[in-house]
Request: fold
Amino acid sequence: MTSTLTPILEFIELDTEQNPIVDEQGLPTLLQGPVGLKDIPGLIAKGKIDNLTLFAELQSKHEQYVWAGEYVNYLVERNKVEQHNANLPAPVANDDGSITEAEPKPLPVAPTRPAVRTADEVLEPYQKQINKLKGIECKGVFVSLNESNQNGLSALKSALELATEFGEAEAFFPVNFNAETAKGVQVVTLENEAEFKQFGLNFIMARKAYFE
Reply:
């Protein structure tokens, strides 16, 4: 049985000599799998993108432990089949002279171990959503690339144009932009028109790239 445990040695309890600890049936006990697992799509949907790399690493480890559990179940089923086949009834002679032999059950097939995924591979299906939430950095604030922020910038642009029309452009600044971020609303203070235009351009180009 020890050789059949080789694929899951890293997932099972070992004795002081690094040999598998098994029960009377030769079955091992799995070590505790990773704790702190999170619903990654759910976190992203709520805008909670901090620590995603850590949670992705835990998810990858969890997938390996799921497979190890399936492998132990395979060993249980294999034991049952081997015991069944070892105790098949003797062949029976029929009246017509033929012999009826009990058919042995086929051995189960071991589950295939999945590839170990990196954190980036776990997060890859959600990367576009993550990029949208993280957005662009401006003065230490990561502004999400959402429609609300786009509308906010458009409103500021219209307000600046009105202030300029009445000769009040200089009085317009500094202006606070209430930016939606993955951490909630944060304030970005734009000191002058040049800063405002540069921020607006960066936002528009990043949002354009997001949709391409």
User: Anything to note?
Assistant: The helical segments are 2-5, 40-45, 52-86, 119-123, 127-134, 147-165, 169-172, 193-211. The longest strand covers residues 175-181.
